[in-house]
Structure formats: C-alpha cells, structure tokens
Design a protein that fits this description.
This protein is an alpha+beta fold. The protein has 3 domains: about 70 residues, Integrase, N-terminal zinc-binding domain (Arc Repressor Mutant, subunit A, Orthogonal Bundle); about 80 residues, YebC, transcriptional regulation domain (Alpha-Beta Plaits, 2-Layer Sandwich), CATH 3.30.70.980; about 70 residues, Alpha-Beta Plaits (2-Layer Sandwich). The chain contains 8 helices and 8 strands; from the N terminus they run ααααββαββαββαβαβ.
Length: about 240
C-alpha cells in the first residue's frame, strides 16, 4: 500500500459518523473484555490489555468508556461467550486477506464472512493459507507536523527498541516487535507524541496490485462489508492501492 493511500485510509476511518464510531467502540470493548478475561484488569500486569487501551485511545475512545469496559469485564470475568477466530483467504486478483473475529456464534460468523468473500470475487481459504505472507508487528502512525523533529523522533523510537522508523510524505510509521510494543509506547507517550494508530498488526511482506477498476471496486466493497459485521474486529490485507 502506498504511503499516501494508507494515510488517506487512516484519516477516513477517523472521520467516521457517530454510528460508525459507536460500532468501533463496541468492538474495542469486546477486545478489552477478552484481554481482561485472559490476564486481569490491571494494564500494568496485563500487556495485552495495555496494548488494546493504546489502540482504543488512538481510535478516539474516551477514557471513561475504556474504564467502564474494564470494570464491566472484571465483573463478568467468567463469561466465555465470545471466542477468537481468524479467517484467511484471497480477495479479487489474489489479494491476501486476514480477518480477525470475536464471536458468540461461530457458524453465523463463518457464513457471513464466506458470503462476502464469494460475492466480491474472492475465496475463503484454510488457516495458514496467507498468514505466512504477513509479519506480526507493533505499529504506530504519527502525523507529520512542523513541531516534530524527525531526527529526534527516530532516535527516540530506535533507542526505545523500535525495529524501524519510516518517513512517508504525511506521516511517520514506527515498527516494533510485538513484545516491545508497550515499552516503545510508554517512551513515545512520555515524550509527548500522539498516535493516529497504535496497535499490534499483521503487516504484509509484499503487496498485490489490482489491474482493473472492477477488481479494485470489489476489493473495497469486500473490506467495507466485512468491517460492517459486528463480529469482525480487524482486517489485514496486502492490496497495493
């Protein structure tokens, strides 16, 4: 994905309608609940919860909402109704797609995901069919602003343990190992940096371009329809837009 396209997509997602933002808050609340269930309500002792809180803040989730989600999950810690499922497949033109879900009805979610893959020229595959084409990494996106000293940001991030700092036209992308995400997050936050995104993500090793407007339109619709499903938490792909 080109730098400009990635930035445009990030800004588009952050300019959602109130209804769309509410859906994002709900999905992040589910992630918080799963993290609390697996590691407890204290982010200082639960790195997964700490990472999801950072992701929630980058998505403009108010702190009160985050704390309510943690408190609610703490009082419902034995509720095992949601399970984590990962779907893998190909979109139109052979674009690799990974879909992460939290669902209380495996059959419903699988049917919905398969339906949209089939409808928009893709096909749902087996576990492992595309995940080898991605690396699990911590990822921060910071908007380029005049007050940010690029050299200082790069030095701070690399000294904190980041693998790489990439300077694009409109943003900086900081990549970490998953285990180093929280440490880098703490240092960057203490230095006053704010994030457009901050999450553990699946980052593609190579990109796939689509050679027709029709396939590009179908790929865009596939992503949008999957994102609209309540059970779907994250979608990763290697479409070079």
């Amino acid at each position: 994905m080109s730098g400009h396209s990635k930035w445009a997509n990030i800004k588009h997602k952050k300019e959602r309608t109130d209804a769309q933002r509410g859906k994002v808050f709900t999905k992040l609340g589910r992630e918080i609940a799963i993290a609390v269930r697996s590691g407890g309500p204290d982010p200082n002792g639960n790195s997964r919860l700490k990472d999801i809180i950072a992701k929630a803040k980058a998505n403009n989730v108010p702190n009160d909402n985050i704390m309510r989600s943690i408190k609610k999950a703490s009082g419902d810690i034995n509720n095992d109704s949601f399970e984590e499922i990962i779907y893998e497949g190909y979109g139109p033109g052979g674009v690799a797609v990974i879909v992460e879900a939290l669902t209380d009805n495996r059959n419903r979610t699988a049917g919905d995901v398969r339906h949209f893959f089939d409808k928009y020229g893709g096909n749902l595959g087996t576990n492992g069919c595309v995940s080898f084409m991605f690396d699990k990494r911590g990822q921060f996106i910071i908007e380029k602003k005049q007050e940010i000293d690029e050299d200082r940001l790069m030095m701070t991030a690399l000294e904190a343990g980041a693998l790489d700092v990439i300077s694009e036209e409109e943003y900086y992308e900081i990549i970490t190992e998953p285990d180093d995400f929280s440490a880098v997050l703490d240092i960057l936050e203490n230095e006053g940096y704010t994030f457009e995104t901050a999450e553990i993500a699946m980052i593609p090793q190579t990109m796939t371009a689509l050679n027709s407007d029709e396939m590009a339109s179908d790929m865009e619709k596939l992503i949008e329809k999957l994102e609209d499903l309540d059970d779907i938490q994250n979608i990763y792909h290697n479409w070079d837009q």
